[in-house]
């Protein structure tokens, strides 16, 4: 970015966030890279800056840094001088996102002599109180916030569930626990935030190994040694404070926009009624005050760890811990503003494959607090869904999937992403329940017709994306493949790919793992083979991302498409087991469509043919409403490869913003193509932009942003007046 002075500097568009890292920190360490990766995936430009470089800026930091992030895990130690400089930056008008254990220790690696975090006065509550709280410094439990705030933080419908006081708490999982009891994480100065202690538990949860708080609690007296003790009596009453703020409307007039879409389904989910644009925002806002807990697929309500906070928070409460205080909130400090996030966002993505929160908070910070230009994650900025069909066995493909795709309402809809398990067996070798694709002409015809290849290439209908659903025999592979038996099960992957490609004569580029079981060796083999998009049960609720496990990013060009859950369920068979009605599942799917439209983002929903046939009215509503939104230009069905290819190309886009006397020039470049790459410029900060070189268009239909889309070529320049 250009470094200007005087009046020119005041007009400069600061187009990137700054991640503050210690001197000598490795940019490839997970503690740093997970932040730079996540920002890039969200279309947010970010740069790293060392402590020394930040200190050298002095009072000029506020003029050169649009938004500053102190990350968790990477910046646990900080000097007094750095803490003071960060406070000076915010006080002078800077925008700060302060995350969990940043600055928890001095540069000598000890707790502050003040007995609390040196950032406590900046945040507005006391935390990291080792001298006072000892074994109760870090708590463990559910995270609660309003429905409106959950969606503002990019958590889609279904990634949260109604909060019921105490019944979902960690303490309630202990039979002997009274209402005053709570769960705590052991800490010390070598592990001030408890992240090292919690690593085995968080990794187990990422693998599905600890599906309930009860199972964690049962282990507490042996392997895990989580502590159960009286809750801190003067912990911040953030939940009550949030509820009060919502009643008085002091948190925000509305988190909704005037062009948002929404709909209501009928009693059995077989039809819907679209809300008029004039009333959508108010109707959505009316339900936004409902208290919700963050949840996860297979788990229900999730628990996270966070510092116990004390004192009354002098700002807007975003998220709370019913037992331990403030989890996230925003407050004014001097002329600036600080967003405090009291959970290790980077850690949960890099170690726990739980990335929806880091993505969401980055989005909020860039979009709502810094109010900066950014790239849309979507081609042309059009939100949409991946509709992923898993066809597991012989009955699934013929007659069930064949019948579904022949129904009138499915004609010329999509494209969908359809994955097949092609082997002869399912549960046991020799059971003959598989589709046996190489020797099944009827199944081959269904695959060919779905892909629109061969005899069916000129027929009527939409060509769908074909992918591989795991390793040859569905349950056998899904329940038995692990990190140690690649020699046994990799050949099954090869068989499945080859069988499908023999029918389609097309290289498969999309994949889903049976039972969600995708060992590391399989993921890495998929990328080497040219697969670019895969379904995953990690990072549930997030948009397309690149998957991390145990501190390592697994792939470079293979994008994971996390499933969107409805509480602890994700597909029709599970809805039946969990008592989810058709009305509820249909409303969730309609809300999911509205979410991706309103937020210009993507998510994935998957189902199986038997489940879809058993809930046909819901599927009809889902598909027909999508067609209505698509005809209005608000929605699109995306295939995995389409979304992955665009996401990978978008990462190669470089752009900058600079100018003088109020006019800001935006220059973008992509070595391959800028086609469909889209910028979102906040209306509150810029006048309507004009394209001055290259090929592009400007849409004025978004109530919050100017939408600038490149049509073709490798470079574009557009300009706007900075308000």
UniProtKB/TrEMBL annotation:
<protein>
    <submittedName>
        <fullName>Uncharacterized protein</fullName>
    </submittedName>
</protein>
<dbReference type="GO" id="GO:0005975">
    <property type="term" value="P:carbohydrate metabolic process"/>
</dbReference>
<dbReference type="InterPro" id="IPR029062">
    <property type="entry name" value="Class_I_gatase-like"/>
</dbReference>
<dbReference type="InterPro" id="IPR011330">
    <property type="entry name" value="Glyco_hydro/deAcase_b/a-brl"/>
</dbReference>
């Amino acid at each position: 970015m250009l470094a200007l002075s005087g009046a020119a500097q005041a007009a400069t568009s600061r187009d990137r966030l700054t991640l503050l890292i210690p001197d000598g920190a490795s940019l490839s360490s997970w503690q740093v890279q997970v932040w730079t990766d996540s920002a890039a995936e969200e279309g947010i430009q970010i740069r790293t800056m060392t402590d020394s470089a930040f200190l050298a800026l002095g009072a000029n930091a506020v003029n050169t840094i649009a938004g500053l992030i102190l990350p968790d895990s990477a910046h646990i130690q900080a000097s007094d001088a750095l803490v003071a400089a960060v406070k000076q930056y915010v006080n002078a008008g800077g925008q700060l996102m302060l995350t969990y254990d940043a600055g928890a220790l001095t540069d000598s690696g000890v707790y502050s002599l003040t007995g609390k975090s040196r950032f406590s006065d900046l945040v507005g509550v006391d935390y990291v109180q080792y001298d006072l709280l000892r074994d109760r410094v870090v708590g463990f439990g559910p995270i609660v916030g309003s429905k409106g705030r959950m969606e503002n933080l990019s958590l889609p419908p279904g990634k949260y569930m109604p909060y019921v006081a105490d019944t979902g708490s960690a303490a309630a999982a202990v039979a002997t626990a009274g209402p005053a009891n709570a769960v705590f994480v052991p800490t010390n100065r070598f592990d001030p935030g408890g992240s090292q202690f919690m690593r085995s538990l968080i990794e187990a949860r990422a693998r599905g190994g600890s599906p309930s708080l009860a199972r964690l609690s049962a282990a507490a007296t042996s392997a895990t040694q989580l502590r159960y003790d009286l809750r801190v009596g003067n912990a911040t009453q953030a939940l009550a404070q949030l509820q009060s703020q919502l009643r008085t409307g002091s948190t925000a007039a509305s988190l909704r926009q005037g062009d948002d879409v929404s709909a209501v389904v009928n009693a059995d989910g077989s039809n819907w009624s679209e809300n008029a644009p004039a009333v959508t925002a108010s109707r959505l806002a009316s339900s936004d005050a409902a208290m919700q807990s963050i949840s996860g697929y297979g788990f229900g309500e999730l628990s996270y760890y966070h510092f116990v906070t004390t004192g009354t928070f002098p700002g807007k409460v975003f998220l709370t811990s019913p037992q331990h205080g403030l989890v996230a909130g925003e407050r004014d400090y001097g002329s600036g503003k600080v967003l405090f996030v009291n959970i290790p966002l980077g850690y949960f993505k890099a170690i726990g494959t739980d990335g929806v929160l880091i993505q969401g908070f980055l989005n909020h910070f860039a979009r709502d607090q810094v109010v900066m230009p950014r790239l849309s994650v979507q081609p042309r900025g059009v939100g949409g869904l991946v509709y992923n069909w898993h066809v597991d066995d012989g009955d699934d493909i013929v007659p069930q999937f064949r019948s579904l795709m022949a129904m009138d309402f499915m004609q010329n809809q999509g494209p969908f992403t359809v994955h097949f398990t092609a082997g002869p067996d399912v549960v046991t070798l020799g059971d003959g329940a598989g589709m046996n694709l190489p020797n099944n002409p009827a199944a081959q015809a269904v695959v060919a017709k779905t892909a629109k290849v061969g005899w069916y290439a000129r027929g009527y209908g939409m060509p769908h994306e074909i992918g591989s659903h795991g390793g040859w025999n569905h349950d056998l592979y899904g329940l038995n493949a692990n990190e140690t038996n690649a020699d046994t099960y990799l050949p099954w992957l090869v068989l499945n790919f080859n069988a499908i490609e023999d029918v389609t004569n097309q290289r498969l580029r999309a994949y889903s793992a049976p039972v969600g079981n995708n060992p590391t060796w399989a993921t890495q083999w998929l990328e080497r083979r040219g697969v670019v998009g895969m379904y995953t049960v990690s990072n549930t609720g997030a948009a397309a991302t690149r998957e991390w496990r145990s501190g390592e990013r697994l792939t470079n060009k293979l994008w994971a498409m996390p499933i969107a859950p409805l509480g602890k369920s994700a597909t029709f068979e599970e809805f039946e087991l969990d008592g989810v009605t058709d009305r509820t599942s249909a409303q969730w799917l309609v809300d999911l469509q509205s979410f991706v439209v309103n937020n210009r983002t993507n998510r994935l929903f998957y189902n199986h043919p038997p489940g879809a046939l058993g809930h046909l009215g819901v599927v009809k509503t889902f598909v027909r409403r999508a067609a209505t939104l698509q005809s209005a230009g608000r929605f699109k069905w995306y295939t995995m490869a389409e979304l992955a290819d665009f996401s990978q190309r978008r990462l190669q886009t470089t752009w900058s913003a600079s100018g003088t006397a109020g006019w800001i020039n935006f220059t973008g470049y992509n070595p391959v193509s800028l086609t469909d790459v889209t910028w979102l410029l906040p209306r509150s900060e810029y006048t309507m932009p004009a394209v001055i070189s290259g090929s592009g268009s400007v849409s004025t239909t978004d109530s919050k942003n100017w939408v600038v889309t490149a049509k073709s070529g490798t470079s574009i320049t557009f300009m706007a007046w900075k308000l």
